[in-house]
């Protein structure tokens, strides 16, 4: 196996992009969400370390999107994961999500979104389907989220070397 390049820029960019939701959630946990900001977080429910109720896992066996806007409680953010209490069908549920399980993060108020490649950090194989910016905008329309296709969506595939 080849020695890992310490200046593997694709890896450095992936790590930096994963820090965006961590920092945004830390700010929300300590100061609340400013203005109209709100977060859409999509994560793989079967990723190691994800803790959700069996009922939620049965309803969302692969991926789940949560929205942090008005009604969330006890948001706690660590280096490797975050936890939050949300209501589902009127009942409070505590979720614990490692950042490595994230598939996408968006803040429609800032017209910002980032989608993480499948296959990163122990995810699905690289050939798993990925949504492009248009698919993400169409999904947002179906869920009632503002259109974010014109925003700053960063596709980290642009930073990959050919053959990776």
From the alpha-carbon coordinates, what is the Rg to the nearest angstrom? 16 Å
User: In CATH, what is the class?
Assistant: Mainly Beta
Give the total of beta strands: 8
Portion in beta strands: 25-35%
The overall pLDDT average reads 75
N/C terminus separation: 14 Å
Annotated CATH homologous superfamily: SspB-like
Proportion of residues in helical segments: 10-25%
From the 3D coordinates, which CATH architecture would you assign? Roll
What is the CATH topology classification name?
Answer: SH3 type barrels
Estimated structural class: alpha+beta
Largest sheet: 5 strands, mixed
Strand order of the largest sheet: 2-1-6-7-8
Low-confidence parts lasting 5 or more residues at pLDDT below 50?
A: 119-159
> How large is the count of helical segments?
3
Q: Which assembly state applies to the chains in this document?
A: single chain
Model description:
The protein is an alpha+beta fold. It has a single domain (9-159), classed as SH3 type barrels. The protein has 3 helices and 8 strands; from the N terminus they run αβαββββββαβ. The protein has helices at 9-31, 54-59, 133-143, and strands spanning 39-44, 63-68, 72-77, 81-88, 91-98, 102-107, 112-115, 152-155. A hairpin with a 2-residue loop joins β4 and β5. The longest helix is centred in the N-terminal third of the chain and has 23 residues, at 9-31. Residues 119-159 have low confidence and may be disordered.
